[in-house]
Structure to design on (220 residues):
């Protein structure tokens, strides 16, 4: 499964990139607004920090003509940019246009398998199924993820299902169980994936026994 970090914070991207395990970064208008920096400046810095990654940057217009202009502008900034588009009617129309131009897209704010079907038919590169916002209203967001994975694989669509709006590490586990292609998550959640008390206790014991034995890797 590919791992993306969901942030507009350059320092978070820098730290995650150092781990050598991230395959991309997703941003959205809220995350860019929180960054306190300009949109193009932030996205280009992220492209520099994750040179092999897929970097999602979102249009903000809702009328087709302006969405297309914004998409072509964003696309022009860097070859690794994936144009992020909301799942609205003009968004699906735009994804079809961009797909026909071989421009990669990430369809966002997807909550149902029927929405995911529309995105896949339009040629979306990534389909961002949101889970946390569904869980936030007492439902199970992962259900649509599993159905969307089955849908793209049943019909042979090239789209990859990207689990988004992740609230905790269990969502990552559930994304794996659902066979999702990608999970994007806040840096804090990605950091939590490393943690287990038995790992900490085991390492502590290893090092204590090693030191008690007065051993050294390097010649003394
Ligand atoms: O960036 C897309 C998605 O991951 C945002 O999720 O619900 O945490 O704002 P959320």
């Amino acid at each position: 499964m590919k791992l993306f970090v969901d942030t507009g914070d350059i320092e978070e991207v820098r730290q995650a990139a150092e781990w050598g395990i991230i395959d991309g970064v997703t941003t959205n208008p809220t995350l860019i607004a929180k960054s306190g920096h300009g949109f193009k400046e932030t996205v280009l810095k992220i492209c520099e920090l994750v040179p092999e990654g897929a970097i999602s940057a979102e249009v903000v217009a809702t009328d087709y003509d302006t969405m297309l202009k914004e998409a072509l502008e964003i696309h022009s900034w860097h070859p690794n940019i994936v144009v992020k588009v909301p799942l609205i009617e003009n968004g699906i129309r735009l994804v079809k246009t961009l797909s026909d131009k071989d421009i990669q897209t990430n369809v966002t704010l997807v909550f149902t398998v029927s929405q995911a079907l529309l995105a896949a038919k339009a040629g979306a590169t990534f389909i961002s199924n949101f889970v946390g916002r569904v869980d936030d209203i007492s439902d199970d967001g992962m259900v649509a993820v599993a159905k969307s994975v089955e849908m793209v694989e049943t019909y042979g669509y090239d789209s990859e299902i990207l689990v988004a709006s992740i609230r905790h590490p269990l969502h990552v586990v559930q994304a794996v169980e659902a066979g999702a292609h990608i999970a994007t998550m806040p840096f804090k959640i990605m950091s939590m994936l490393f943690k287990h008390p038995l790992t900490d206790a085991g390492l502590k014991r290893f090092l204590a026994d090693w030191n008690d034995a007065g051993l050294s890797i390097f010649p003394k």
